[in-house]
Design goal:
By secondary structure, the protein is α/β, with parallel strands linked by helices. The protein has 14 helices and twelve strands. It is 41% helix and 11% strand. Helix 3 packs across helix 7. It starts with 14 loop residues before the first helix and ends with a helix. Bound molecules: pyridoxal-5'-phosphate (PLP).
Length: 383
């Protein structure tokens, strides 16, 4: 048995992608330019989305989309406590108030049956998360959003390549935000993009992502461009570099193969762990969907396992196997408790999952032997 550390996630970057990064570095143009333009078109094609804007991260995408949708102080944005803190942070940074809806205890996605109870006359946006790459029921979500006249920003950080009823996340609905962080289903190092069907939102994000300047650097300095520009609003510096897009162009072509391998490994865990009393395994809904399997997240049963989730993670680490924690429920972090008055007991399903969830190793380059090693080590920890 190899004793080398096995991380919970590892990006798979092809030799061709590495060669293209070198070509980009040697080309003399390394920031936003022709490769980002090409990546934009490739993403539009893959997502079947009319407007796509690559950005420096999904966090930037959530922040700018909220601003572009005109969130003002006092406006409420409904989201889930079972997410990365960026989801809530960006609501606060945009001036909004995060309002939370508990999760469905089976799928860990926002419980849409509780969503309407959280809607008030101050609600502007619903921001669900496709947790682990499992699509939220978009029919149900948009039926509620449309009936109440609300915008939807899908936090699709986990969900590039996921499908709901035969359509990719990004191909239908209002606006989606994807992440290309190294643990995600495809990567550009850091990076992300938004996809939208709203031209006005796309135009505003286009300005906000680069200083509020009406032309990007390539247009200003490239052949045939002009160095002149106008500043029409104060903007941010959230643009993607060509170095990143050089990786992304390759990753996007390989994405469906990556997801297919993730799916095989997730199914392998489901089959191998089915009879283990120490675990409650992830469940998937009945509606047709393609799970992107960004993470594989069973819940530990502490009584059967005779240990807590944190003790399990430590025991795995001692045996040279990495695990992940996605996530501790965000409403219990000090800032959110103090600023918005959230308390233990507010969202019982999220809190239960928060105490027990663990991400087991899952990445496209993972071999069957590495997968067996994880299972063997888990067995040895419990026996
Ligand atoms: C649900 C969710 N939203 C947003 C983000 C932010 O993504 P990024 O790291 O690209 O800013 C993440 C990243 O982990 C995430 O998991």
């Amino acid at each position: 048995m190899s004793e080398e550390f096995l991380p919970f996630s590892r990006p798979l970057i092809s030799r061709a992608a590495i060669d293209d990064v070198v070509t980009c570095l040697e080309s003399g143009w390394i920031t936003t330019g022709p490769r980002v333009a090409q990546f934009t078109e490739a993403l539009k094609d893959y997502l079947s989305a009319p407007f796509v804007l690559p950005l420096s991260s999904a966090t930037a995408g959530l922040h700018l989309t909220l601003l572009a949708m005109g969130i003002k102080p006092g406006d409420e944005v409904i989201t889930t406590p079972m997410t990365f803190t960026a989801t809530l942070n960006t609501i606060v940074l945009a001036g909004g108030k995060p309002v939370l809806v508990d999760i469905d205890p089976k799928t860990f996605n926002m419980d849409l049956n509780q969503l309407e109870d959280a809607i008030t006359d101050k609600t502007r946006v619903i921001m669900p998360v496709h947790f682990a790459g499992l699509p939220v029921d978009l029919d149900h979500l948009y039926e509620i959003a449309e009936r109440h006249g609300l915008r939807v920003i899908e936090d699709a950080a986990h969900a590039i390549g996921a499908e709901f009823k035969g359509k990719r996340i990004g191909a239908v609905g209002d606006t989606q935000v994807f992440s290309f962080h190294p643990t995600k289903n495809m990567t550009t190092g850091e990076g992300g993009c938004i996809a939208t069907r709203d031209e006005a939102v796309a135009k505003k994000i286009g300005l906000l992502r680069f200083h509020g300047i009406d032309r990007e650097a390539w247009n200003r300095y490239g052949k045939g461009g002009t160095q002149d520009y106008e500043v029409v609003m104060p903007g941010y510096k959230y643009n993607m570099m060509d170095i990143q897009a050089a990786i992304g162009l390759h990753q996007l072509r390989e994405l469906d193969g990556f997801i297919a391998r993730r799916e095989e490994l997730a199914e392998r865990y489901q089959a191998a762990l089915a009879d283990w009393s120490q675990w409650t395994l992830p469940e998937t809904p009945a509606y047709p969907h393609r799970h992107a399997w960004h993470i594989y997240t069973p819940l530990i049963n502490p009584v059967s396992a005779n240990m807590t989730r944190d003790e399990f993670m430590l025991a795995m680490k001692e045996k040279n196997i990495g695990t992940g924690l996605h996530y501790r429920a965000v409403h219990l972090y000090p800032y959110y408790r103090e600023r918005f008055g959230f308390n233990l007991g507010d969202f019982p399903h999220a809190e239960n999952v928060s105490e027990r969830i663990v991400s087991l190793p899952l990445f496209p380059g993972m071999t069957d032997a590495e997968h067996d090693r994880v299972l063997d080590v888990m067995y040895s920890i419990f026996h």
